[in-house]
Amino acid sequence: MAFMIAQRAFLKLYMITLVEKHRGYGYQMLEELKQDFKSLGYEPPQSEIYRSLHDLVEDGILYRSRHQKLGVEYQEVIMYHFTEDGHDKAQLYKKQVKEDLDRCQALLQKAVQDNY
Closest Cα partner for 56 from 95, 101, 21, 15? Predict the structure, then answer.
């Protein structure tokens, strides 16, 4: 068992949630996460966002589709959507990650309590 949750697992959790909220293309997800975590001093690397999305595609949770970007004549974006059974797989993955997050939170709380 790892000491803390891996960055990739953390980001995959957020990718799933963002697809659930219909924010389905990579750059949009990256910018939203940068803004959300800015106050905490964390900026998710662009490469890890796309690796996380690719993992979710390989895991059969998401699929990709190309769409014309609105307002731009020759630019396409890759949108991510749940596969037919992807949402069920995503919920199982989120449950597993929640267990890891709870364990990490308990470790951090213990460290603060024991040392401060």
Answer: 15
- Under DSSP, the state recorded for 61 is S
**Closest to 20 (Cα-Cα) out of 73, 62, 57, 64:** 62
Which of 63, 87, 78, 69 shows the shortest CA–CA distance to 26?
A: 78
How would you write the pLDDT of the chain (116 residues) with one tens digit per residue? Answer: 778 999 999 999 999 999 999 877 888 899 999 999 999 999 999 999 999 999 999 999 999 998 877 777 778 888 999 999 999 999 999 999 999 999 999 999 999 999 99
To which residue do tokens 């991510």 refer?
80
Count of CB atoms situated within 10 Å of the CB of 25 = 19
